[in-house]
Every structure is written in C-alpha cells, then in structure tokens.
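ligand=MGD
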Amino acid sequence: MPDSLTRITSNHWGVGLAHIEAGQIKSVSGHGDDPAASLINDNIAGSLHGAARVLRPSIRKSWLEGAPKAVPRGQDSFVEVSWERALDLIAAELTRVKTQHGNGSIYAGSYGWASAGRFHHAQGQLKRFLNTIGGFVRSKGNYSYNAALELMPHIVGPYPDQVAQATRWSVIAEHSDLVVLFGGIALRNTQVCGGGIARHRMPANMKACADAGVEFVNISPLRSDVDAVVNADWMPAHPGTDTALMMGLAHTLWVEALTDHAFLERYATGFEKFLPYLLGQSDGQPKDAHWAAEQTGLEAEAIRALARRMAAGRTMISVAAGVQRADYGEQPMWMAVTLAAMLGQIGLPGGGFTVGYGVNGNIGAVERPFAGGTIPQGQNPVSDFIPVAMIADMLLNPGAPYPYQGKTRHFPDARLVWWAGGNPFHHHQDLNRLRAAFQTPETVIVNEVNWTASARHADIVLPVAAAQERTDFGAGTSDNALVPMPQLVAPPGDAREEFEIYTDLARRLGAEQAFTQGKTRDQWLLALWEDTRKNAQGAGIDLPEWEAFLAGDVITLSDPSPHQVFLADFRDDPKVNALPTPSGRIEIFSKTIAGFDLNDCAGHPSWYPPRDRAAGIHPLALLSGQPKTRLHSQLDNGAYSLSHKIQGREPVRIHPNDAAARGIEDGDIVELFNARGRCLAGARLTQEIAPGCVFLWTGAWYDPDHEAPKGRCRHGNPNVLTHDLRSSTLTQSPASHSAMVDIRRIDEPHDPVTVHSAPPLESDG
Ligand SMILES: Nc1nc2c(c(=O)[nH]1)N[C@H]1C(S)=C(S)[C@@H](COP(=O)(O)OP(=O)(O)OC[C@H]3O[C@@H](n4cnc5c(=O)[nH]c(N)nc54)[C@H](O)[C@@H]3O)O[C@H]1N2
Ligand SMILES: Nc1nc2c(c(=O)[nH]1)N[C@H]1C(S)=C(S)[C@@H](COP(=O)(O)OP(=O)(O)OC[C@H]3O[C@@H](n4cnc5c(=O)[nH]c(N)nc54)[C@H](O)[C@@H]3O)O[C@H]1N2
Ligand SMILES: [Mo]
C-alpha cells in the first residue's frame, strides 16, 4: 500500500472517504454525492485507534482461576491470553454446557447494531456458527419499535411493510396541508439507516415541504425535534400523554361532526365499540379536549383548534418510534390509527398516518429495489426465544412464566450468554438491575471492538476487527445504494475477523465443514456479491463483477416506487386488497386482543397514565433519545462525540426555569437521580426543551463508581435511571422514555470518567 491514500468506507451513518497515512485512518470526510454527510464520521479515526480497543483475548481473572463469584462481573480484572488458549476454553465450555444443560441453555439473542457490511455481520456470523453446533435461544424483536412490530399485525398489518410502503416525502410536499408530528422527526436521527445511507435526503425533504407551504405541528418535549426550516408550531405535551391528546382531538372531531363516517364504515371495524369509551359512556369520563388538556398540560382550546385544522385539509399524522418506546407504547399508535381513520384520509396522497418517520434517514425517502446477499444462518434446532427486552427478566427468573401475546411462556435457564455486535450495558434499561442479572450465568462471552461496559461484564472477551479493518460491501436494508468497503487498515493487536474466529472454533468442535461450507472468507464475499447480482438481475439491473465493484464508487439505484402512498391500494379496493388483519380492515377494536383480557392493553385504544408519572415521586420527565454525535454507544470516544461533552460528561438539556430552581448554571456538573440509580452529567441550559423535562442522550459509555451510592455512573448513561418495565404484557416491549428523575448541582469533588481506556489487564503466565 502507498503511504497516503483516500479510500471509500460505509457505515450506518453514511459513506465516508477515509484518509489513510502510514497504516492509520487520519480522518473521514463525507462523500461528494451526499448532500448532508454526517459528522459522526469524525469519530472514526480517534475511536478506531483509541485507548479502549480490545487487543487480545481476555479472560476475567476469577473465572479463569475457577472461583467465578470471588469478584463480581464488572469489577474484576482481566488476563490477556493467546487465541489458542481462549478458543480451547470456549470449546470446552460450550461442550460442557451443551452436555449438562442442552443447547436451550445457550442464550445468543445478542441484540445490537454491530456494523455495516453484508458478510462480516456480527450476529449473522455468531448465529450461523451456533446453528452448526446445536443451536441457541434467540431474541425476538428490537429496542427500536417493538410495540409497533407486535401490535400492528393485529390492527393494520405487518409493521415492516409499513416502513417500506411509507408515503414518500415528495408526495407530502405536493399534497399535504398539515403534518402533525407526535415526537417530531428529529434530523439528528435521520443521519442513520441500518446497513448504510449513501445520501442524506431529509434536510432537502424538509426544505421541499417548507417551500411548498406545508404546515407542521410538533408535539414533542423538544422544539428542535423538527427542522427549523418548516417553522413548526410547537405543542409540548407532557411526555407519555400523546394518547390522551389524540383522544381529545378525536372527541372534538366527533362532537363537531368532523368524523368521516363513510370511511369508518367501509375500511374500519369496531369504531362503535370505541365510541362509548371516547364519550365516557362506558367509564364515566368523556375524553374531551378539557380532559386531554389536564393530562397533557396543553390548553383545551388549542386542542380543539388543532382538531379543526386537521379536518380542514389534507393531514398526515406521524408518530415517532420514540413515542411507542414507552409505558403503554401500543396506545399512541393505535389511537393515531383511529384518529386517522376518523379523518378518513388513509390511502390518500399526503393523508393518513405513519409510524416511524424519523426512525431512520430513508423512511419515506427511498426503498431498495432488491435485497442484498446475506450469509445464510442455517437452521436453529432450538425454537425457544425471549422478547428481546426481557434479558434481565430471563436471567433473574429462569424457568418462570411470563405473558406474551395472550399466551403464557417460560424463560429458559440460560447458563451461557454470548453477545456479538451489541452493547446491552448501553441499550438495556435499569442498568443496576442488569448488573445483578449478569451475575447469574455461568459464562458470558462478548466479542467486541472496544472495552465497552458489556465487555467489562464478560468472562471471555474476544477482540474483533472493526468494519474498516476488513473487506465487505454495504447494502443498507432500506438504502438504494451499494457501497464497496475495501479493508482500509489492519486490525490492531491480535484482533481478528469473526469469521476466522468461528472457523477455528468450529474446527475444535468438529463443525468446520458445516460452518465454512468449504469456502474461504474471500469465496464467501464473492458468493454474497453474486447473490446480490442475481437479485439485481431479477429487478432488471446489471451490476459489475466483484473486483470492479470493490475498486469503484457507490452504485445508486432508483426507488422502485417513488410516488408511494401508504395504503392507496387498500383504499382503492378494500376487498381485493384487504389488509392482513383478522377482519381484513383497520381494527379499531380487536377481538383477538380483547380476548386476551389484559389489564394493560384492552380491545380498543385506551388511556393508561405512565407509571413513574402516576407514582409522582420525581418531578422531571427524563427523555433519553438517540445521540446526535454518534450511533448509540458506538464511537463515544471519538472526536465529535467528545466535543459535545461538558467536563468529560454527557450533556443533559434542561430548561432555564428548572435549572434556576435548583441553582444550576450552564456548564455545571449535575447529578440525575431516582430510586433506581444515579449519574453525573453536564448541564446544558436551553429554551428548546419544555419545562418539566430533561433530555440526556443515550450512548455515554456506562462508567459505574462502585464506591458511590447506587454505583453512580460518572459519565451520564441515562439507563441507570430508566425502568425495566415493559410497555405492556401484550408486546413486552422496552419502555425507556417513561422515567421520572430529579437533578441537583454537584459541588463535592468527583472522579474523572475512566471508561474510555482499557480496564486493568494482566498478562498470561
Ligand atoms: N434509554 C434508552 N435506551 C435505549 C434507547 C432509548 O431511546 N433510550 N434506544 C434503544 C434502541 S432504539 C436501540 S436500537 C439500542 C441500540 O443498542 P446497541 O445496538 O446495542 O448499541 P450500539 O452502541 O450500536 O452497540 C453495538 C456494539 O457493537 C460493537 N460492534 C460494532 N461492530 C462490531 C462487529 O463487527 N463485531 C462485534 N462483535 N461488535 C461490533 C460496537 O463496538 C458496539 O459496542 O439502544 C436502545 N436503548
Ligand atoms: N444520530 C443518531 N441517529 C440515530 C440513532 C443514533 O444512535 N444516533 N439511532 C437510530 C435508531 S436505532 C433508532 S430506533 C432511531 C430512533 O428514532 P426515534 O424513535 O424517532 O428517536 P428518539 O430520539 O427515541 O425519539 C424521538 C423524539 O421523541 C420525543 N419523545 C420522547 N418521548 C415522547 C413522548 O412521550 N411524546 C412525544 N410526543 N414525544 C416524545 C423525544 O423528544 C425524542 O427526541 O434513531 C436512529 N437514528
Ligand atoms: Mo433502534
């Protein structure tokens, strides 16, 4: 390789051009064709070559010494060993656990975003490997929009179809008069799309709407949850009260004769079962604008005015995924569907509802015309699974029953946990509870790039090559581009590609042929590219051969349905294009769900006050949405992420009134606390947030101080404060946006953040 060169790379936040000198990435800039490249690229150089890299296979000291309980996981030191020794230990441990307890006691749900790239996909590789040796317990769903995944099939149809078929922004710009955003459509989040996003189109989409005179209402605790260019009206309802607000709107539509009866009759079922509840005939409480005002903190007249405005023209109702990542998160979606059905514009250009605009940069912008090749995962002989957010529940309650989708299931007895490509000590709620849960398995294996908190809670940590350190190609699941990902630099220390690790392990377990199918890494890459070419051919598109592609630039494909209007075909002919629901229609009342007889999800949309708020102990609603400066916890030790920290702590946004009441000034170190936990953060005062709310992004690496009460996080990870309760027993989804906290200024001395460098390491022998 020459001394200095520029090469292409692809990440979940976009295509980058990496400038490489002497075997190191010096900087990564956006691609020239990207109109709004992400600054998250600026983190890559510092993080990839940073002090937190896992460089050698590492074994937790007490585990290695055969006294695994001597020091709790997360507080122990590690011994660096050779690959030979680490893989021998894993092979022996897998064999022991399988023999003694069966494959149903291996949990490899391994949730997480890993990296872009079709072949070196961390979860795909792990699952493929484990399937060749008898299987594992998987996880079902995600942390992003699990309530949508689980609820939507009952009331409209599979949620992934709704993402692909979302009404295009070009249609909204042309046809909508009004867009009502529950939870906004935060530009910071549209930097990202799973698997890659070659062009960031959302700023241009917003500009086009503004130019066309489309009006926006932003119902969100953050004014900046929508691009300033559209000049949205801001209605900051209390977090967790969107359902009540929507009911107030629905009530107004009903009493002011603004309801589309013909639509309800032809396309929906069960409105007559919901109406007595809306009007208070069934429970004595009319859900009118006045009642909604009490729940939301908005003015009753403002609610009535919004209802009239929505009925006066073409209105798109948008519910951000964050709104359903909350207590009873099923309800705002169900109620949004009901509200849209009452307006009668579902299936019309620019009308109806969408759940998830803003959940990535491509929804409503493009869709890919064909699927990229994927590594076949084989068959998992174990059929057991857990809903993904029940990880701590499972570890703490082996064998215990739990409700899910109207059935009673039982937790597996997980003896061995293996995580690759995710960071549960980032993504899970109530980290103190998760710490306790992570003490229960006999063995925890984590494959990691960096010494994340999850790696620190493992027994065996395997150092892996990062995306820029291996050859692959990017084909984002909803991106319309194919991106070459040549290896840019060598992996540091003893870090290896995961495919090689599993090949060596499979050999020890007599499964090498089953795992590799006799193919080398390069042969696999070629095979996946050939699959992609074949899929492309099916869509009438010719792709170059692998070598030419790898040496070239981004290939952009066209959106197969650039004028997509969600549910237009259903509106056209509800018999021929019936919805895949039990009735074939929109279910405002679901017989199936009613039949489950749940106390947290009835047969029609219902109002349940969020639990922490109802308990009334702490005054401030904690929002913990996605970080602008990184992808979740990835690259937290990079330059862009670090540039936003305050004295090394994560910034927490707070309204000046709430700050003044506590003697807090901009830039102060503060402590957020509740009964579950504590963390430090740096105060950022802003009028952009509603009073009564604080916003602490996710993703600051968890850095517990074991000496401080509740193992206080020094750094600012909000998940020490969130609760580990589910949205409901119907869907068992995460509910991270529903925590209440208080906050105080810190005057006493406090330790620096330590988590951006490796933990204490000893060498073997
Ligand atoms: N409070 C609160 N919590 C939340 C949310 C919230 O809104 N509020 N949001 C939730 C949501 S929507 C999500 S999706 C989750 C995200 O949670 P995660 O997906 O777990 O978060 P990431 O930081 O992306 O974790 C990916 C990890 O994989 C590692 N990695 C990257 N590439 C590779 C690779 O090739 N191999 C291996 N072995 N490892 C690799 C990275 O170093 C990183 O540690 O967080 C959830 N948590
Ligand atoms: N830069 C960046 N972009 C990302 C990610 C990232 O880590 N970094 N992660 C990606 C992933 S995995 C996902 S799932 C998506 C998530 O995308 P979203 O779910 O849309 O994002 P969130 O930030 O969780 O929530 C959006 C907004 O909802 C508001 N909100 C919270 N609670 C309530 C409420 O009760 N009512 C109302 N009306 N509003 C509320 C908050 O102000 C928040 O800003 O983002 C993706 N994009
Ligand atoms: Mo997500």
